[in-house]
Amino acid sequence: PPAASKWVRLNVGGTYFVSTRQTLCREPKSFLCRLCCQDGPELGSDKDETGAYLIDRDPTYFGPILNYLRHGKLIINKELAEEGVLEEAEFYNIASLVRLVKERIRDNENRTSQGPVKHVYRVLQCQEEELTQMVSTMSDGWKFEQLISIGSSYNYGNEDQAEFLCVVSRELNNSTNGIVKEPSEKAKV
């Protein structure tokens, strides 16, 4: 096909990809732009018998690279390692994609290093008339979890008073060197 053709055929590791010159030139300093989009071929590259540019890279990781150039979004299938996409983005010299993948890897590492969220639970015993006040005055991150009726074991005057166990919780996010410390505050009643 003529050099000014709109479409470019790439043979990446034995897998064919077809894209437009406009897409491949989204990043002017990238390998792909220098390969096929500049007036004089800056990079000498072999072509196969079909006229496709030969690129000796893993085609599995080229899909996310090409899609990023097409629409500017990073989409990686769950079965692909982000580190593999990063390696290819660095090879193809697509700086904006390199930053984006590094940011995603860093975010994932931060999320996994925090570990699972742990909770501390408290069980408070109260009477029916104290229940509303207790629940409405909980503070410091304590949340109501469950209310368990334990009957009416107290009899004040002529009235039976129902009694409850109130289960409250809060996230336990204090940790020092991997040792989790339980907060010293108590659920306020």
UniProtKB/TrEMBL annotation:
GO terms for cellular component: Cul3-RING ubiquitin ligase complex; cytoplasm. It comes from the Eukaryota. One of its GO terms (biological process) is proteasome-mediated ubiquitin-dependent protein catabolic process. PANTHER family: BTB_POZ DOMAIN-CONTAINING PROTEIN KCTD2, POTASSIUM CHANNEL TETRAMERISATION DOMAIN CONTAINING PROTEIN. This is KCTD2 protein. GO terms for molecular function: cullin family protein binding. It comes from Burhinus bistriatus. Residues 6-109 form the BTB domain. The gene is Kctd2. Gene3D superfamilies: 3.30.70.2000, 6.10.140.750, Potassium Channel Kv1.1, Chain A.
